[in-house]
């Protein structure tokens, strides 16, 4: 039996082409590529402006069932589908988020695909890449420093130190920093107050970079950030302390999309990376809209299951950027469906058609939800060697009863050869013009009603509940002119409910909204539900314990 190579071994053996050749495939002249080494580059703002008048290609969203420890492979499928479309003669590219260091060294690992459906250079993409996340972290924390500095030097804006709304960030999982007290140590260090850290991918600066249309829009949105409130509860903005210009300077390079390639030398934009359970979970608008001008098919993904990533992709990103997706792919694995059907992880290798069928309720819910947005969907069964013919047949039969189709995909083992059937089905759906996209709710709907609409129509809960203080806060924001913003639900990714252990397709559960945050620059309201944390912690045995340099100086343990 042939040895199965690890993802990092496959990536290291890639036959990469110079990034200028990849750019040439898209019609990007070499002078408009800002290279970072030989295998990655940023795209110039001048080139992006030059293609704005071109017609758009077809936008394909890849989403998934609720994630389980068994794995689903959404990024892998996105890359595999992009390669598959190119294999059948289509001009296609993929648009992905940049991975966060937190999951890389925590539990989840990287986000560059897997097996023979990867983007490369894998190590760079999963680690420091082109420095975008570091720039976002620096811009965010510059604002934090300027707030405390303003207060120290007399507080001319009369910021109420009890109502500073701007926390700090770092791109790492560190539970010890969730709640802190800063400015201790005496008069020269400022005025002590409670504060805290979020992970960088939860930063409003990250969301702003991913939703801004250009540098001018970026700076304007940065100025709109609410940093805190006065004693009379009037808002203080980032532009009030003159932070927006300097923050934009730090983000100038980060605003440009990053061009890399798949293992099969097809182009990919990898840019931005808000988390999907605590932010809006999509790559940048600039990358997606530029890709649509350069390719006939653009395959993108939204984080975690369709209840989080796809809903936010449709209700936030597409609404704000005027995007109209042509089709969606919902990724599932037999193993994950078994877990949704009640099977323990250690028993997933044993055939269990009954559990697969039971677990299909989760898949069926996601199919229904995607169709609510007027987007036709196909199911991609990401194949594992332990899958049996009877289990696959059960999934296909279930999906057929929903009016959709399920396709077995072997991209992890075979690359584009394993996604030809999926690519053909996606083309069929996209070219049929069956999509009649519309968001779930209207802009003018009251904020709490928007939250309730997502709870009832997407999560199938009975209602959202919130303390009077939360409801009053939403009403105040409506009175201040923010009532037309969409809502960004911060919720566990593992369930339609707020209980991560409640798998399958639960109904009539209550969704508690613990806190709401106004992201005025990004342009949405964050509703924090249940026990979700905006700064994750590391597990008992983090992945970082297995990541090291070997004797040859190569990285081992990254996945």
Spatial extent as radius of gyration: 23 Å
Assembly classification = single chain
CATH C-level label of the largest domain: Alpha Beta
Tell me the structural class: alpha/beta
Question: Do you know the CATH architecture of the largest domain?
Answer: 3-Layer(aba) Sandwich
CATH superfamily of the largest domain: P-loop containing nucleotide triphosphate hydrolases
Number of helices: 19
Number of strands: 25
The CATH topology of the largest domain is Rossmann fold
Given as residue ranges, the uncertain stretches (5+ residues, pLDDT < 50) are none
How many separate domains? 3
Helix content, binned percent? 25-40%
Principal-axes shape call = globular
Quick structural summary:
The chain folds into 3 domains: 7-130 and 254-431, P-loop containing nucleotide triphosphate hydrolases (Rossmann fold, 3-Layer(aba) Sandwich), CATH 3.40.50; 133-251, Domain 2, N(10)-formyltetrahydrofolate synthetase; 447-529, Formyltetrahydrofolate synthetase, domain 3 (Roll).
Using brief descriptors, characterize the structure shown.
single chain, 559 residues, alpha/beta, Rossmann fold, Domain 2, N(10)-formyltetrahydrofolate synthetase, Formyltetrahydrofolate synthetase, domain 3, 3 domains, 12-stranded mixed sheet, 4-stranded mixed sheet, globular
Structure in words:
Strands 1, 2, 3, 4, 5, 6, 14, 15, 16, 17, 18 and 19 form a twelve-stranded mixed sheet that branches. With 559 residues, the protein is of the alpha/beta class. It starts with 6 loop residues before the first helix and ends with a strand. The protein folds into three domains: 7-130 and 254-431, 3-Layer(aba) Sandwich (Rossmann fold); 133-251, Domain 2, N(10)-formyltetrahydrofolate synthetase (2-Layer Sandwich); 447-529, Formyltetrahydrofolate synthetase, domain 3 (Roll). The chain has 19 helices and 25 strands. The longest helix has 21 residues, at 132-152.
């Amino acid at each position: 039996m042939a040895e199965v190579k690890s993802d990092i071994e496959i990536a290291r053996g890639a036959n990469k082409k110079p990034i200028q050749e990849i750019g040439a495939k898209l019609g990007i002249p070499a002078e408009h590529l800002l290279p970072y080494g030989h295998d990655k580059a940023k795209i110039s703002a001048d080139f992006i402006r030059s293609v704005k008048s071109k017609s758009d290609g077809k936008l394909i969203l890849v989403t998934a069932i609720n994630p389980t420890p068994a794995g689903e492979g959404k990024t892998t499928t996105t890359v595999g589908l992009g390669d598959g479309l190119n294999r059948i003669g289509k001009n296609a590219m993929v648009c992905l988020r940049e991975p966060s260091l937190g999951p890389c060294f925590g539990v989840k690992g990287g986000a560059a695909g897997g097996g023979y459906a990867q983007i490369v250079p894998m190590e760079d993409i999963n680690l420091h890449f082109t420095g975008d996340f570091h720039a976002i972290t620096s811009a965010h924390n510059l604002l934090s420093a300027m707030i405390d500095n303003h207060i120290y030097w007399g507080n001319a804006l009369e910021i109420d130190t009890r109502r500073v709304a701007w926390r700090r960030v770092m791109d790492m999982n560190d539970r010890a920093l969730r709640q802190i007290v800063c400015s201790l140590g005496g008069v020269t260090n400022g005025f002590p107050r409670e504060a805290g850290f979020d992970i960088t991918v939860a930063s409003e600066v990250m969301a702003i970079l991913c939703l801004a249309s250009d540098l001018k829009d970026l700076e304007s949105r940065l100025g709109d950030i609410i940093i805190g409130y006065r004693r009379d509860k009037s808002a203080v903005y980032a532009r009030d302390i003159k932070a927006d210009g300097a923050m934009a300077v730090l983000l100038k390079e980060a605003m440009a999309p990053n061009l890399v390639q798949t293992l099969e030398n097809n182009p990919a934009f990898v840019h931005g990376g808000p988390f999907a359970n605590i932010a809006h979970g999509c790559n940048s608008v600039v990358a997606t809209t530029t890709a649509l001008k350069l390719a006939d098919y653009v395959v993108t993904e939204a984080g975690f299951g369709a209840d989080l990533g796809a809903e936010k992709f449709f209700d936030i990103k597409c609404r704000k950027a005027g995007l109209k997706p042509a089709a969606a792919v919902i990724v599932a694995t037999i193993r994950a469906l078994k877990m949704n059907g009640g099977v323990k992880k250690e028993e997933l290798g044993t055939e269990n058609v009954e559990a697969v069928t039971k677990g299909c309720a989760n898949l069926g819910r996601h199919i229904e939800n995607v169709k609510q947005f007027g987007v036709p969907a196909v199911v991609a069964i990401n194949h594992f060697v332990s899958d049996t013919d009877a289990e696959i047949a059960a999934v296909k039969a279930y999906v057929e009863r929903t009016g959709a189709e399920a396709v077995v995909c072997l991209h992890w083992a075979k690359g584009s050869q394993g996604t030809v059937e999926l690519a053909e089905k996606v083309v069929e759906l996209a070219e049929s013009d069956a999509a009649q996209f519309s968001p779930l709710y209207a802009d003018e709907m009251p904020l709490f009603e928007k939250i309730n609409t997502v709870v009832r129509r997407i999560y199938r809960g009975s209602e959202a509940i919130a303390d009077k203080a939360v409801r009053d806060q939403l009403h105040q924001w409506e009175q201040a002119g923010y009532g037309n913003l969409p809502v960004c639900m911060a919720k566990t990714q593992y369930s339609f409910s707020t209980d991560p252990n409640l798998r399958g397709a639960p109904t009539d559960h209550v969704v508690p909204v613990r806190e709401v945050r106004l992201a005025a620059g990004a342009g949405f309201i964050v509703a924090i539900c249940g026990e979700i944390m905006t700064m994750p912690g590391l597990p008992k045995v983090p992945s970082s314990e297995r990541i090291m340099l070997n004797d040859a100086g190569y990285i081992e343990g990254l996945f």
